[in-house]
Amino acid sequence: MYAIVTTGGKQYKVAKGDIIDVEKLNAQPGDSVELDVLLLNDGKQTIVDAATLEGKKVTAQVLDQFKGEKQLVFKFHKRKRYHRTKGHRQNLTKLQISELPLEGAAAKSASTEE
User: Fold this and answer.
1) Contact between residue 103 and residue 37 where contact means Cβ atoms under 8 Å apart
2) DSSP at 98
3) 76 CB contacts (<8 Å, ≥6 apart)?
4) Domain count, the chain
5) What one-character DSSP code corresponds to residue 30?
6) Is 24 a domain residue?
7) Nearest to 62 by CA among 35, 93, 16, 99
8) According to the model, what pLDDT value does residue 108 have?
9) pTM attached to this predicted model
């Protein structure tokens, strides 16, 4: 079973117990956060209907707030003696996925449609 969640303008494929690094969230280590679900798969059926997934959330535990690796930005104009080097480190949040939305939800909705 897995889900596609969105946070910080990006999408992540997650399963229970996964650890992911996302854009910084306003939460302290030990807090619990909820992520919006775009797709839910139980191994037999895939749900992508927005109406069905409207109230579903993936619960994750905040493990750490940290900075990512340094990204170098190098500007250069040949034959003009121009070069500039800058660096950037993105603030990130480490999350552990603790709960997927109603793990039998896909199976229940499949049985009601038949």
Assistant:
1) no
2) E
3) 82, 83, 84
4) 1
5) T
6) yes
7) 93
8) 52
9) 0.79
